[in-house]
TrEMBL record:
Residues 1-20 are annotated as: Disordered. GO terms for molecular function: glycosyltransferase activity. It comes from Brassica campestris. It is found in: Golgi apparatus membrane. The lineage of its organism: Eukaryota, Viridiplantae, Streptophyta, Embryophyta, Tracheophyta. GO terms for cellular component: Golgi membrane. InterPro entries: Nucl-diP-sugar_transferase, Nucleotide-diphossugar_trans, UDP-D-xylose:L-fucose_XylT. The keyword Transcription does not apply. The chain crosses the membrane at residues 43-61, 95-114. Belongs to the glycosyltransferase 77 family. This is Glycosyltransferase. Keywords: Cell wall biogenesis/degradation, Glycosyltransferase, Golgi apparatus, Membrane, Signal-anchor, Transferase, Transmembrane, Transmembrane helix. It is an enzyme of class 2 (transferase).
Amino acid sequence: MAQQKYLHQRPIQNPFTNPFSSSPLSNSSLSNRPISLLSRNGLLLLLALLVILGVFLPWAGSPLFPFPNTLSPSQSKWRDYSLAQAVEFAAKNGTVIVCAVSYAYLPFLNNWLISVSRQKHQDKVLVIAEDYATLYKVNEKWPGHAVLIPPALDSQTAHKFGSQGFFNFTSRRPQHLLQIVELGYSVMYNDVDMVWLQDPFKYLEGRHDAYFMDDMTAIKPLDHSHDLPPPGKKGRPYICSCMIFLRPTSGAKLLMRKWIEELRDQPWSKAKKANDQPGFNWALMKTAHQVDLYLLPQTAFPTGGLYFKNKTWVKETKGKHVIIHNNYIVGFEKKTKRFRDYGLWLVDDHALESPLGKLE
């Protein structure tokens, strides 16, 4: 009875009582009283609205609402685009030109594309996007010319040479190239910090398995050998993995498989900040007796350490340069400035010559 008496004396809780107030609210006062955004109720309502918008509005890619399942129909199409479909679309006469790009390097992609367009080879370009932001941007501007091979990487980072991110980015390259030659296509790979001054296909003489360029700055004679150069101080040659042309032969496939194997055996670590190029050189040296290799002429395909640092040689070989590589320098800003200094940063005045046009 004592407990029952206590229950009768206890005040009945108004179902509209404000949980943050000690005084109950009536129905009329609740409906007539405006809610301030600065009040606790107002902040709760605002938070609820933001959650609803984030879930139901299809704002994929927005930094505020980065929900992966809210894609537009066109974005969903490219998310399912396979490498086989992309190569079949882009290839011309059995040949495709590929590059691998993350979002931070889209300006360099555009610069390279202008130079490729001037040589009338842009239609056979396929961009291997390393992140979804790049995939959607390129295909929005140039439908069908970008594909992503999962897993996607970080889209906002311009990876520094020697970093683990740079290794993760570049170590995927031989797998991409192997897939393409296994599909039966010839493939030219380019880094996008390159500029074409002439048509490189004119220099792919004969029917060799693999073509590549030297990364040494020492000047070679004009009639130098096209064989794989001898090993250097580190026990391997110094060939650049920035420009490679492969035919769909058993030799080219063997070379790519060996490159993949070398990268697996020598992964990145803090002590050994590896990149993909040493593995490529080990693969070249270890398969040289089984693969028909061809070293491209130095005058046509000079390394950046020669072209940008030996003005005398550049003057003596004027008119013979085909592809210029902006290497032997580290950093997005430094590469851009060097291209500008040498009149090779084309996007400032010639962006409309690129299939992507002006990038905003």
